[in-house]
Design a protein that fits this description.
By secondary structure, this protein is an alpha/beta fold. The protein has helices spanning 22-31, 50-58, 71-82, 101-105, 133-139, 175-210; strands at 11-17, 37-44, 62-64, 89-92, 108-109, 114-115, 117-121, 144-151, 161-168. It contains 6 helices and 9 strands; from the N terminus they run βαβαβαβαβββαββα. The protein is 37% helix and 22% strand. The strands form 2 sheets. Strands 3-2-1-4-7-8-9 form a 7-stranded mixed beta sheet, sandwiched between helices. A two-stranded antiparallel ribbon has the order 5-6.
Length: 211
């Protein structure tokens, strides 16, 4: 019988990140307190990105796979790098590349009906898809903005939504304060989304058990 030290986590994941890595650090720290959620490695496409140092401090392998103009070759290099880590899930944390349909298909889960790839986006989708969402929301003077955690599909920020949380625009907001409050919400939302995914996995396993 498996004991608590050998039990396989329900989610064994890799994180993909391109920048400072604050969301990556958030997920890694959460994984250290959650036996059902494990971060096996981080993939970064930018040499010198802040996420590299954060991973080193937290004891998580971080592999730099520099972006290549040939996306197929780049994704093949990522998969080869990931192979020893046996990661079944991917969490995107400020990863600035669009994954190909062929790559997504390798992580499709028949039981859940989604790709096992998750992203956090800094807006209330479908508003402000793509880059610079906080800036565009701020400049549009929306009364409220928010964050969305969703499964990744072949579109841009268009996959099935796991959760959305909003926050109001304040009269005295600058772009910096507006963005900072959004980022604080991101950290909490991503952790809550992990919990919801774990719940979906439990439901699916019960269905399979009694099918």
């Amino acid at each position: 019988m498996e004991n608590s030290t050998t039990k396989k986590p329900k989610i064994r994941a890799a994180i993909f990140a391109s920048g400072k890595g604050t969301n990556a650090e958030n997920l890694i720290r959460h994984s250290k307190d959650n036996p059902d959620f494990e971060i096996a490695a981080v993939i970064c496409d930018q040499e010198g990105a802040g996420v590299i140092g954060r991973c080193a401090a937290l004891g998580i392998p971080c592999h730099v796979v520099p972006f290549e103009k040939n996306r197929a070759q780049h994704e093949a290099a990522i998969l080869e790098t990931l192979s020893p880590h046996d990661a079944e899930w991917i969490f995107l944390a400020g990863y600035m590349r669009i994954l190909s349909p062929e790559f997504l298909a390798k992580f499709y889960d028949d039981g859940l009906g989604v790709n096992r790839i998750v992203n956090i986006h800094p807006s209330l989708l479908p508003w402000f898809k793509g880059r610079d969402a906080y800036r565009r929301a701020y400049e549009s003077r929306v009364a409220e903005s928010g964050v969305t955690v969703h499964f990744v599909d072949e579109g841009i920020d268009s996959g099935p939504i796991i959760l959305q949380w909003d926050f109001p625009r304040q009269t005295a907001d600058t772009l910096e304060t507006f963005t900072a409050r959004g980022m604080e919400l991101e950290y909490k939302a991503y952790i809550k989304a992990v919990a919801r995914i774990l719940e979906k996995i439990d439901v699916q396993r019960k269905k399979e058990k009694y099918a």
